Amino acid sequence: MSSARIEPDPAIIEDALELGARFALDAAALDESARFPVDNLAELHRRGFFRAAVPPPFGSAGSLVEAVKVVSALSKGEPNTGLTLALQYLLHMPLLRLDRDAPSWRLRARIAESAVEDGSLVNVLRVEHELGTPVRGGLPATIARRVTGGWRLSGSKIYSTGAGFLTWNAIWARSDDDAPLVGVWVTPRGAEGIGVVKNWNHLGMRASASDEVTFDNVFIPDDHVLDIRKPEEWAQPDSFEFAWTFALFSAIYDGVARAARDWFVEFLKRRKPTNLGAALATVPRLQEALGEIERLLYINETLLLSTAAAVDRGAAPSATQTSFLKCTVADNSIAAVEKALSLTGNHGLSRHNPLQRHYRDVLCSRIHSPQNDTVLTAAGAAALR
Predict the structure, then answer these.
(1) Is 302 left (phi over 0), alpha (psi -120 to 50) or beta?
(2) Alpha carbon 24 to chain centroid, angstroms
(3) Around 132, how many Cα atoms within 13 Å sit in the side-chain half-sphere?
């Protein structure tokens, strides 16, 4: 990978700010109906965001600073849209470093080209009823059996964002070998044996279509195997990929917290209790609370952009350090929204106002891997060594 700094594109960041504000207008309706943001994603494709999410030779230079700012701006407006675009960045990102003769180049390039040309969506489906999240260890129950010309894959995946809307299903599974291989097999939407169970009924991120996807003896040709390895070969973290993953997931919820902050500011300016005879914005205690929210969001911004800038100049922090980033940004984002909620009472909890929605959405930051306990336990054990 080149040591030259990769520069973000200011124009696409400006576009993201504009579209985030526009998407905010329909965010409550999407949440209420749990409707996947297909119109938003179509607009992102039309405006070139899918090209920006795809590295050269198909798209842009692949700046993490740009990606963080785009995902945060879009998520401030409508976080399910931001999450879906972030997943596209993460699947295409390895093309930044892959050689053309790498085994997975041809398949990744085909998926990337379909994203640019058609707005195709992809997600790596990992979580299972039996396994939970793979980050805690264990082999997936979804199994790929060797057959002539490829594989037959059976199993199911829960919390599969974009289920039913994905052009490409990338499935975390294991082979049926005596010494199983673990990795990702890819199948297109509409392949025989794929089903969707509409069981996503969450408190937050309701429009993400994170339903269950089932696979019943689905045929996957040999050239649709993305990356399979011995289980132990997945244990060594890739600091570059970890930085992209944790920074982008963190940017989603930082964006949600910023939307909550903006609503809180307007509430303080607008609300004028008769016993006070002035706006709540004049009350020192509330000014102090807003100052605390500003502090938390400043820490988020500093961590996110400094980490992304380091990646863009070829100096990705360690996986442990970016795990700390994810925990810190998630905790700060939740704390910022909780602070606003605790001071607005019934107004904040009313479904007529967006603060309760921001709170429900920001709580979902806790469920993205890695969770705090795994990060802190691993860091503590490493320190003791």
Answers:
(1) alpha
(2) 18
(3) 9
Residue with tokens 């609370």: 289
Q: How far apart are CA 248 and CA 260, in angstroms?
A: 19
**Nearest partner of 93 among 63, 69, 126, 49, judged by Cα:** 63
Place of tokens 């085909």: 110
Q: Residues 111-133: what's their mean pLDDT?
A: 90
**Span 5-27, average pLDDT:** 95
Tell me the three state secondary structure of residue 115: helix
Say whether pTM exceeds 0.70.
yes
- Choice between 343 and 132, residue whose per-residue pLDDT is larger: 343
- Rounded to an integer, the average pLDDT of 97-102 is 85
Q: Which of 252, 255, 192, 251 is nearest to 219 (CA)?
A: 192
Fold entry, domain 124-232:
Butyryl-CoA Dehydrogenase, subunit A; domain 2 (2.40.110)
CATH class of residue range 10-120:
mainly alpha
Summarize pLDDT for 175-187 with one digit per residue, the tens.
Answer: 999 999 999 999 9
Query: Which positions ≥6 away from 128 have C-beta within 8 Å?
Result: 140, 141, 142, 155, 156, 157, 158
CATH class of 239-384: mainly alpha
Contact 229, 184 (CB under 8 A): no
Digit-coded pLDDT (tens) for 139-151: 899 999 999 999 9
Q: What length is written for the chain?
A: 385
